[in-house]
Specification:
Blueprint (H helix, E strand, L loop, with lengths): L1 H5 L9 E5 L10 H8 L14 E5 L8 H12 L3
Parallel strand pairs: 1-2
Length: 80
């Protein structure tokens, strides 16, 4: 489903932000593992040609990651 979204021809300029939540929990997956499980390990190599895709690991409890993710998303949405 994620790859279908990424490869849509409609609005190819729209970025995709993936938030890997709950990193504060014991046994949480790493960013590398999440990318692998989602099939995003080749983001730079091939998906960048389709649209901007980025993964940010986050925790609301620790107040980390999500703000940076939303800032990245806003930067991608700005023209020029």
């Amino acid at each position: 489903m994620l790859h279908e979204l990424i490869s849509l021809d409609e609005r190819p300029h729209l970025p995709v932000l993936v938030l890997g939540n709950k990193i504060d929990l014991v046994g949480a997956v790493s960013e590398e593992e999440l990318r692998l499980q989602l099939g995003l390990e080749q983001t730079e190599a091939c998906l960048q040609d389709l649209r901007s895709v980025e993964v940010f690991m986050c925790s609301v409890q620790l107040r980390s990651g999500y703000i940076e993710g939303f800032k990245w998303l806003l930067q991608q949405m700005r023209p020029g």
